[in-house]
Specification:
Layout lengths: L14 H21 L5 H12 L3 E2 H8 L3 H13 L3 E5 L7 E5 L1 H9 L3 H9 L3 H23 L1
Antiparallel strand pairs: 1-3, 2-3
Helix pairs in contact: 1-6, 3-4
Amino acid sequence: MDRPPPLPQTLDEQLCFALYSTSHAMTKAYKPLLDKLSLTYPQYLAMLVLWERDDIAVKDIAARLDLDPATVTPLLKRLEALGYVERVRSAADERVVNVRVTPEGRALKNRARSVPADLFCAMQQTPEFLIRLRADLQQLRDALSAANER
C-alpha cells in the first residue's frame, strides 16, 4: 500500500503561505503602478469588472470579485467620489443599485492600459508559464470553492 507524502510541517512548506505571500507580493507590485492612477488594488479590480460590463448591479460586481456587497459598497462610493463611476437606483427595482462608468472612468481605462504590461515585465516570467499558472490557480480556487459549499 502506498503511503501518502509527508505532511508539510514548516511555514515554507505550506501551500497556503506560498499563496498568501505571493498574493501580498503581487499587491505590492501593483501599488506604484496604481498610485499613478490614484487607485487602490481593490478599486482597480472593481474598475476592471466595470470596464468589462458597464451598468451592472452592486451585487453582481461583488459576486464577480467574490466579495460581500457590504465590502464593495464603500469601495464604489470612493470611486464615485473620484468621479470614475456613478451609482443609480434601478428603475425596475429601487432596492437594486447599478454602477455606471463615467466619461472620466472611461478615460481612466486608457491611462491604465499599461498596467498589465508593466506588471508582466516585473514578474520576469514567460507568457506560457503565467497562462498555465493562472489556469492552475483557477482550478485550485474552483476546487476549494466547491469543497467549501459542501
